[in-house]
Specification:
Layout: H1 2-17, H2 42-65, H3 68-87, H4 91-96
Helix pairs in contact: 2-3
């Protein structure tokens, strides 16, 4: 009985943050204790995720060709966008006062 209750609480928690919807799940606290206020969501989050995948492909292509400079820049870009899409937080958005979580 307690397992069923725990599963219902988990489902309701996921529904609260929007699992399966446009917003998706975004952690507000990372394992190291860093806390983030969500400011990336909706289409902005999707675009950042797609660009992270494309940047990763460009990085792999550049590194296989021996173009280390372009490869490293693409890896850094991919990691930044992937981080933004995963935790729904962007430092630049925070500095500029932009909040796309309602998109």
């Amino acid at each position: 009985m307690s397992v069923l209750r725990a599963n219902r609480e988990t489902v309701s928690e996921f529904e609260r943050v929007g699992i399966g919807g446009a917003k998706g799940y975004c952690p507000t606290t990372l394992s190291g204790g860093m806390e983030f206020e969500r400011n990336v969501g909706g289409r902005d989050r999707l675009i950042r995720g797609v660009l992270a995948v494309i940047s990763t492909m460009i990085a792999l292509w550049a590194l296989r060709r021996g173009d280390r400079k372009r490869g490293v820049v693409a890896v850094v870009f991919a990691l930044g966008l992937g981080f933004n899409a995963t935790v729904c937080f962007c430092g630049t958005n925070q500095l500029l006062g932009i909040d796309t979580t309602e998109d």
